[in-house]
Amino acid sequence: MRTTSDAEETPKERLDRNLGELLQELRVAQAGVQILFGFLLSIAFTEVYVRDANAFERGTHLVAVLFAVASVGLLTAPAAWHRILFRRGKRQEIMHLATRTTIAGLVCLSLAFTAAVLLLAEMVIGGWAAFVVAGVCGLFIAALWFAVPLRERE
């Protein structure tokens, strides 16, 4: 591994490093998506859910599943593109698109987490308190994942 500064990297080396870092970040995010998606899929097959879930809970569950599916698609797309376009001189294009789909995938993942918390809170405590709990969790994720890094960029 090269230990020189960014200024000494060639554009190709920087692109290779950035792509490697992005793919590693996607591996980390994918673990969270897989755990959440497995949890969401398993809920629909529980006796309590089948017997007791009302229309709001079922709708919230479906929204969470759809955001999780969107997240899976968006977060795995860069790996698929990399493999399909491997050695075709398209790394710059892959990085450009992958950055956008990764951010969109993380937005979908944060919404899936928030919807899953809303579903859980609705089934456990119900009412307005469920919305408060889900809202606080959603704001917490939004602050950590998006607000803090955006503030640091400036």
TrEMBL record:
Protein known as: Integral membrane protein
Q: Membrane-crossing residues?
A: 31-50, 62-81, 102-121, 127-148
**UniProt KW keywords:** Membrane, Transmembrane, Transmembrane helix
Per the UniProt record, the source organism is: Actinokineospora auranticolor
Instruction: Report if keyword Lipid metabolism is assigned.
Output: no
Give the source's domain of life in one word.
Bacteria
